[in-house]
Structures are given as structure tokens and as C-alpha cells.
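Subgroup meeting minutes
Present: P.N., E.W., G.H.
Scribe: E.W.

1. P.N. recapped why we're keeping a running log of single-chain structure predictions: easier to compare across weeks, and new members can see raw inputs and outputs side by side.
2. G.H. added today's entry (466 aa).
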Amino acid sequence: MAQSESIRILYVEDDPGLARLVQKRLQRVGYVVDIASDGEEGIKKYEADSYDLMFVDQTLPVYDGLEVIRILASRGPLPPTIMITGTGDERVAVEAMKLGTSDYIVKDTGAGYLELLPSVVKKVLQQRRAVEEKLQAEEALRASGEKLESLHEVASRLAACSKEEEIYHLVIDAAKKILTFSYCSLGIAEGKQIVTKVSYPHPFPDESPAISVDDGLTGKTYRQGKTYVLREIRKASKAQPSRTEYLSLISAPIEDLGVFQVASIKPDAFTEEDARLLELLLGHTSSAIKRIRLQNELKEQAIHDPLTGLHNRYYLNKVLDQEVKRSKRYNHCMAFLMADVNRFKEINDRYGHHVGDEVLQGIASLLLMAVRESDIVVRYGGDEFLVILLETNGEAETIKQRIANKLALRNKKNGWCDFPVTISIGSAYWNPHGSQSVDEIMNEADKLMYEEKKRHNGHATGGHHD
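Output recorded in log:
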């Protein structure tokens, strides 16, 4: 509520002498008082201007006090209104209260009631202030309830997301429902940087998509895992807004995953309650991101060999049928290379399994470097590997030679043991219009690999893995 110096009062009274007395009495305590001499003028003045409080005498020309109040009440909410009645006229006072007046004063013949006017004004204004504060509290509670309901809804939607990108956009939409801001951004930690994944309303041309975790308020928020509410950005030494028109900001961590920021062109635009609601939203966000990352990690573990990082037999069984169908559709051949490490048992026996593991890891890396990214490399079992060259036409021999050259270079520069590590490779082609099945082609490649292994060792090993 405004201070007394800015409180404007309309006094509707047909007695000009009394009206001036009232005006002077109230002006002495700091109120601004306008006078209307009859009911019609009172209605016109009230509708033409803005008043914080109104006095209306019951006995007026044109419209009496009750009629004035009734007409104004029919056109909208009344300001705090005080009815002035004749001595003992309780009936009029009761009727006025029913119409929405805040209080009434009974005139006395000696006009002693004038001394009571300041205290009556103060009481009525305090009552109105209490009503407004109650309404504001109820509205804040209602708004808070709606925001919490929005958070509950977004938590359910986050639980249904299957990709991180879906989460980013969903969080921006949710933030718009619980906060009022000019700009916001969501950044995720990648190594030593916070990379902006999405922003609203749009990225600024001069805005960097990444910031070091050691720089600015963004880095500080991430490192300390603490929410900052800046009511005046310019007074915060660590804050470096991308646009100078931003005057206030919230910078909040997405747990240990990143940072979410909202900014406003208005000063002191955000409250601690806003920060609390944003933290609740980001708690749901963090849980959803970690859930998706865990699911993706488990999926990756299910299709990859833990030692070499190559795809495993489970993955091969899933994709091979798809690749066969695709090759038939586009009439592309596929080449299958079966590779086995020579003298692998000897390596394990003489140097230990940790060296054997290093050999398998090194061979896996070498195979990946020798083929295209679109080709498939699988740890088929033990020390045996399968390479599938997609959409190929006679490149198998070239790839085999490339593998041999890379392995020879590796042995020369930094060998695993005191003899060169070699591999035996058998290759075979599958034609989509040929009579052989993929399984038959793979068996053929396996047989050729085994024959090369025997030639390499100079005698039969009794199995695929020596």
C-alpha cells in the first residue's frame, strides 16, 4: 500500500464549508483530497480518475449516497469506501455495508467527527492492505500449486524420454511454465567444457556454444554444485552475461551433469521460490539423463566385448540378417575375413594372460584401423576375429595385406614379446545372387584361415586356437 503522501481520496459532500474542513483536516496528515459537490459529479470524478479511498455523504443532490455506491458497485469493484450518515441512521449504514462499503461514520452536530477521520482512514486502509495481502498469498499459493503440478507432470514425461535431446527440449518447455524469463540455456559437461545443448528463444550469434568449467558463473555453478540467484547481474563479478540487457539471473547446477540458466531483462526478476522450483525441475532432469545414460551403457555392454571394445557375437547375430537383406536389395557383395592369432597359447603360457590380453586389444585396434568405419569387426571368440566388409568388390586381399603391414610395423616398433606376433586370415565372398548361404561362406573363410594357420605353424595344431 502507498504511503499517505500518495493516497488520493475523493470526498463527495454537498456542503462546501464542511467539504473544505474535511479536505484541510486530511491534507494536514498527508492525504490528497478531491471534492465532488453532488452524486453525479462524484460518479464522474471517480470514473475519470484513480482514487485509493472514497467518502460519500448519504444526503446528496441528484443521486444520494446509497445510489452513488450502488451505481459504482455495478460497474466494478469499489475502492475502500466510507459512508457518512446522519445521526442514528443505522438503516442506511447497514444498507451501505451490504453494497460493499468498508465503514461508516455518523455525523454529529458539532462536527466533532472530523477529528476521527484520519484514524478511520488509517483503519480502513489497513483493512484493505490485509485483504490484498491475503489475496496475494492465496494467489501465490495457487500459482505455486499449479507450478508444482506442472513439475509432477513433467517428471512423468521425463520418465518416458528415450533420448537426451528429448529431455533438453522438454526441460526448456517446463521452465517456461514455472518461471518468467527473457532467455534460458541448458549446458552439459563434456570433458573440461560446458557445452550449450539448447537455448530459448534462440542462440545468439555472438554466444559461444561452450565455456570452460573454470570460467565465469557457469563454471562456478558447475564446480560448486550451488544455485546462484543474481538480482543485479552487474554487481556480480563472476557473471558475464552474453547480452548487457540482462539484469537478473538464476544459475543452477544439473547435479554433476551441467548447468541451467535463466535471465531476465528486468531487475530482481527471480525469487528464492523460483530457484527452489527450478532446482526441483533440474533434479528430475538429472535423474532422467542418468537413467538414459545407464540404459545406453548397458546396451553398449550387451553388444560389445569388454576386453577389446569390439562388437560381440550377440551383436553379430542381431545385425547380420539386416545386412544380408540390405545387400540383396542393393545387389552388393560382402566379404568375410576370419582372423586368428598365431601361437596365442604360447604367448599366454610364456608371458602371462595380461600380455595375451594386450595382444588381443592391440589386434582389435589394428583391425579397426585397417577397415572402413561402416565395416563390422567382431571378436568371434577367444583369439579369433571376424571382419565383414560391406558393399565390397574384391577388396579382401587388399585389406588382408594392409592388416599384415600394420601388424609388422607394430612388431617392429613395440612388440609384445620376443617373437613377432602374426595372424592367419581366411577370406571368402558372399554374392546375394549366389547359391551359397552366409553361413556357408563364413565356414569357408574359417576353413581357409585354419589352412593358413597350419602352413604358418608347419604342422596341425589340433584346433583353431593354438
